[in-house]
Amino acid sequence: MAPTAESLAPLALAYLERQPWFGLAIAGLAPAPAALLSYSVLRDGRPGLARLLVGRGERRFQLLVGWRNPAAVAGMLGGREEAIIGSADDGGEDVLVYEALADDTLALELLDLATQGAEHAERVRHVSTLVSHASLVFDDRLFMKCYRVLEPGVRPEVEAMLRLDSVGFNAMLAPIAAWRAEGFDVALVREFLPGALEGRLLALTSLRDLLARAAEVREASGAPAEDLEEATSATGGDLASEMRRLGAMTGSLHLALAAAFGDRVATPEALAAIVAAGCGEGLERLERARSLVGAIAALEPGTTGRAIRLHGDYHLRRVMRAEPGWVVAGFSDDPLYASRRPHTSLPARTGSPLEDVADMCFSLRQVAREAAQLRPSDEAELAEALAGAWARRNQEAFLEGYRAAPGIDRLLPGHPAAAGLLLEAFALVRDRRYEASPAEG
Amino acid sequence: MAAPARDPSLVSLGVAERARPLDDDPHWYRRAVFYELGVRGFYDSDGDGVGDLEGVIEKLDYLAWLGIDCIWLLPFYPSPLRDGGYDVADYFSVAPELGTVEDVKRLVDEAHARGIRVIADLVINHTSDQHPWFQESRSSRDNPKADWYVWSDDDQRWSDVRVIFCDTEPSNWTYDPVRGQYYWHRFFHHQPDLNFDNPEVRDAIVSVLRFWLEVGLDGFRLDAVAYLYERDGTRCENLPETHAFLRRLRREMDRDFPGRVLLAEVNQWPADVVDYFGDGDECHMCFHFPLMPRMFMAVRREQRFPITEILAQTPAIPPNCQWGIFLRNHDELTLEMVADDERDYMYQEYAADPRMRKNLGIRRRLAPLIDNDRRVAELLYAFLLSLPGAPVLYYGDEILMGDNIYLGDRDAVRTPMQWTPDRNGGFSRADFAQLHLPPLMDPVYGYQALNVESALRDTSSFLHWLRRMLAIRRHHLVLATGSLEVLPADNPSVLAYVRSGERGEPGGRETILCVANLSRFAQATELSLGRFEGLRPIELIGRSAFPPATDGYQITLGPYGFYWFELEER
């Protein structure tokens, strides 16, 4: 037994309209009615489980719903009362319908379904709820992303992880299963490393130690720039050796992406066009941008390295430090992100691997900037100088590790000057993007 | 046995310990706390300026009070002392300035009367070139001991084998003009390697062990045990023949001297070191070398990965075995002694850090290494006493003694134990000029400021703190023998782990949660304690109850703070 589609549709659509994430997902779209496109019962009985596919204009959404007898719901949701969708009729019996992920029993069932019975768990933990997906952790061992905003065709994140896995790349949270239904990737299950931490947290730990010493450093050095560099290396929380390791891992990621998706020549014209497009209106305004585009276009063909499938959204939140070393935690998976920001690195995009490299360097500069801003105002000047020195030191270490990755030379421009030019140009693009939209930084 | 004589200074302070019986647990080493001391620097009983065995006997009450379980004596054999006594010139006697074999026997008896065991260093890979065996071997090519060392007509054999002391030794071969041949040595040129392919040598070494076991020693710390044999086409380390010989030693010990231990010094990666446990039929204990620098590194970096990644790479060991872990000892981290993997890691971590670089290869005591920060000392000891392994304390570190780097690498950390604020720090009644090494007299670490007597009087001293921690550890054996699981924490500066296993009484289980803050700033974190839902964390030092365990357990820690929680049924 299950509630009918007719009884569920108005409840579910009204529920979606109430959800902040849904509002964000349709922001800026032309007004259009939402409609229930399909209704698949995944589990009969009590509790029941179903997938609703909802369309609004061109966009598609997944809503997983569960139902139980009203008395059984009381207390079961444990503070997640906002997950209740409403009352429905199920064969003459009243049931309370709610978002299925809030029901631990159903969440565990979803893991079984997503992995076709290959994985079972005893405990589930809710980690995060973003616009594009909700995340669950099972037994501190498995991680499941249930997509809310669906993407037609193969989702780039799913594709990238499965292909990388197939070429033996293991510095990532390994994919366990991709759940495909009704023409969409609806969920991804990957491994979960309980001790692993976002790169950004490590960076902040390092900066915390350095910036707290602002006063000591000032006394000791009088703060000329060269002493600041020394101070960053002498501080306990120094991150350089970790960044060197991250650089090496990034090199192996790019080689694996090339192996998985192939690579082709990156022509100077194409690279110049990418930089020009990335600079947007800044191209008119910034002389340096114009000269970089010109210099890149003038590079000798065949000297500018290869173009590969990029990570495309490579920054400190996308990498994690785990016990065995650095791992890629995930890929850009938000279809809304790409559609709203035409100049951002897009998933499933091809380009020079130095674009990813420049993105990570930007991320280091950005986290340093943010940390410096949190210091008391009378330390601001020194804190910014220290943060700048920190970013330079760690970028250098990252680049050093990257360039030392065995085999990476094959993908990079043959001449260091060309590589330097491209890195500077991509860094400029990244800074421009940040200026245009700081929230996306 | 007669009641042991009491140290009068301890009696007057009211701290003399009542005798603890020596327990008969054959696996005592798995939960023991070791205390490493050099007889020369501990206490001089006869006023000749050199510490002696009688001096150690006189200080046993202090060690019993502190709560250690086993003394590890640095080499006390006759020696030209060109390598701190690790160059043995006679295996069957005691250096005359330290005492006699009879004194060793008496030390063992007196220690046992206080519930303390005694093990001693033993070097079996090589002897001093002054050893009569070598003198005879070098005298001709056909004497009875001609084949007791590794001789060769040229210096080309095993030319690929690394030279460990590459700064001082150009080769593993040295020419002997007396015999007109080269002899093999993995360490200093004055320490020729014994030839273990010769069955007479193997028998001789077995008889050395049997001699000291009959005197009463509870075991040996075997020095440089990875290098016993040489084989073409190998690195001449960790060879199967070495393991076979260790199994033979173990068999003889188990048969005739049950309950004694072999503690191996194998300065290699944990995955390689575990071979020395065999199937529980080789060494009872091995040192875990990489853990020590990583504890320092984690505090320096303010993040847990240096520790957690080495724990993750540490394989399980047989149930009757134990790691030996330490913060400092007489002779550690120099890069030439560490395995390749660890050397790469240390280079990467240390090379960029001027302060760590400065300390690399220099033997420092704990306190100077951590800028005499007591909070860091407590944190590091909290790790030492709660991570898997038997902790090895180094004499003097219990009062946070300093070092004297001007004495050079070998002696910097071997200055006399500081007992009192009196002349020579109470170490010796000899004239200052007669002392074998000068005691520390600087304003921070000097004996006037830092000594056992003062620390005993001050109940908030580090010494008293450490004693309390040792007592807590003794009552919670799971800290010694339990399983280890590192818990995820969302703050990189926080390291949390659970030790669990059987409690002392049959059928009982015990779970202890350890949480530590590696940062010099206060930190908060969230721990996933859903598995322990409903259990109440009881802090072990003050027995304070904390809120019951939940999935997202919020916890805050002061700078370098740590907690040990017993998880109790409510």
Task: Provide an overview of this structure.
The complex is a heterodimer of chains A (441) and B (570). Chain A is an alpha+beta fold and 441 residues long. Helix content of chain A is 45%, strand content 22%. Chain A is built from 16 helices and 17 strands. In chain A, the strands form four sheets. In chain A, strands 1, 2, 3, 4, 5 and 9 form a six-stranded antiparallel β-sheet that branches. In chain A, a hairpin with a 2-residue loop joins strand 15 (319-322) and strand 16. In chain A, helix 10 runs parallel beside helix 16 (416-436) and helix 12 (287-297) runs antiparallel to helix 16. The longest helix of chain A is centred in the C-terminal third of the chain and has 24 residues, at 380-403. Chain A is globular and about 75 Å long. Chain A starts with a helix and ends in a 5-residue tail after the last helix. With 570 residues, chain B is of the alpha/beta class. Chain B has helices at 8-12, 39-42, 53-58, 60-66, 101-113, 132-139, 199-215, 240-256, 270-273, 291-301, 305-312, 340-351, 354-359, 366-369, 374-384, 452-457, 462-475, 478-481, and strands at residues 34-37, 70-73, 117-123, 151-152, 173-176, 181-184, 219-223, 261-264, 285-287, 322-326, 390-394, 483-487, 494-502, 509-517, 523-527, 536-539, 553-557, 562-568. In chain B, the strands form four sheets. In chain B, strands 1-2-3-7-8-9-10-11 form an eight-stranded parallel beta barrel. In chain B, strands 12-13-14-18-16 form a five-stranded antiparallel β-sheet. The radius of gyration of chain B is 24 Å and the shape is globular. The model of chain B has no long low-confidence stretch (mean pLDDT 91). Classes of the chains: A alpha+beta (441), B alpha/beta (570). The A-B interface holds A 123, 125, 140, 194-197, 201-202, 205-206, 208-209, 212, 230, 233-234, 236-238, 240-242, 244-245, 321, 323-325, 397 and B 299-303, 305, 308-309, 311-312, 348-349, 352-355, 486-488, 490-493, 519-521, 528, 530, 551.
